[in-house]
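Pipeline run #58 for the internal structure catalog. This entry was flagged by the ingest filter as a single-chain record with no existing model, so it goes straight to prediction. Upstream metadata was stripped on purpose; only the residue string is passed forward. Reviewer on rotation: M.T. Logging verbosity set to normal.
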Amino acid sequence: MKVAIILGTRPEIIKMSPIIRECDKQGIDFYILHTGQHYSYDMDRIFFEQLKLPEAKYNLDVGSGKHGEQTAKMLAGIEEILLKDTPDVVLVQGDTNTVLAGALAASKLQIKVGHVEAGLRSFDRTMPEETNRVIADHISDYLFAPTENSKQYLLNEGIPEEKIFVTGNTVVDAAYQNLEIAKQTGNVLETLGLKEKEYFAATAHRAENVDSKERLGGILSGFSQIYEEFGLSIIFPAHPRTVKMIREFGFEIPEGTKLIEPLGYLEFLQLEGGARLILTDSGGVQEESCILKVPCVTLRDNTERPETVDVGANLIAGTGEKIIECARKMLESDLNWENPYGNGDAAELTTKNINLMRKSNTMEL
C-alpha cells in the first residue's frame, strides 16, 4: 500500500506528524506532498526538522491568494503528481483549501481518500473552512472522526456508517509526542521571564475577528478588563496580520498585554502548558488547552470543537463583554475534565483501519 500525505499549513503538519511517524514505524510506503498554502516548504523546513519528520517529496509552493485561485493551483498541481505517483490512498487533515484540493483531485482520479479529523461542524457557512470540511467528508472513503459527536454529524448527513471510524484526534498524539521534543529544545518561559501559572496566553488570527474594527476592539477591551481584574500579564504572540490591523484601526495595546513575535510550535506548546488561562480564536488551541488541562475562553461566536465546552474545558465568549465574564468562570475550574479526544493512539488506529479496509476491498475483488 502506498499512501500520499497531503498538507500545506503548519496546523496540518502538527496534526499529521503522529500519522507520519506511525507510517514510518509500520514500514508503510508513504510520501509527503506540501502545497505551500501558508508558507513555502523552504520556510516550513525548520518545522519538519524540529518535529523530526522526513522531508516532503513534492512541493507545490502555491503561496497565498484568493480561495478560488489558490485552490485551483493546488488542484492542478496535486492531480499531476497523483497521476504520476498513483498512490492507493490519499490522506488529508482538517478543513483547509489544501484538504479540499487534495480530496477533489484524488476522488476524481478514483484514488481512495482518507479524511483525518472528519465530522467537525460549526454550522456556520460564512466560514470557508466549513465548506471545505463538508465537501471533503462527502467525497472521502475513510472518515476518521475524532469523537462520537463528530460521527453522529456525519451519520445525520447520510454518510454510510461503514466509512466512519472513531479514532480520537491526532492532536492528542501530537501534543504528547511534541511536548517531549519541546522539553529537549529549551525553556520558552525562562526566555520570556515568565513563571508557570502566573500569566495568561492569547491568540487571535481569524479574518472575521482581526479584520473587523468592532470585533478586534472588543478583544483588546476584554484583555484590558482581564488585566485590571486579575493583574496577570496576557502574553499575545501576534500574527503579522493582527499587528497590521491593530495599527490600521488605531488601537493601542492595553496595559498588561504583551505583544510578542509569533512563536514556533514547540515554544507555543510550552507557553500553552504553563498558562493559567488561554484566550483564543483558534480551533487547534481549543483542543490543545483541553488536553493540557488549561482553561480556555474562545473568542468566537461558535465552535466546531463543542466537546471542549461539553466537558467544561472551554467557554464561548464572542468578542464583547462576555470575555471577562467567561474568564472569571473558567478561572474557577477545578481542571478535572476528561479529555474527549482519545488516549493518544489516534494515528495508530487511523493506519490500522486503512489497512483493514484495503485488505477487505482486495478480498472482495
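catalog note: The radius of gyration is 20 Å.
catalog note: Residues 332 and 351 are 40 Å apart (CA to CA).
status: ready for reviewer M.T.
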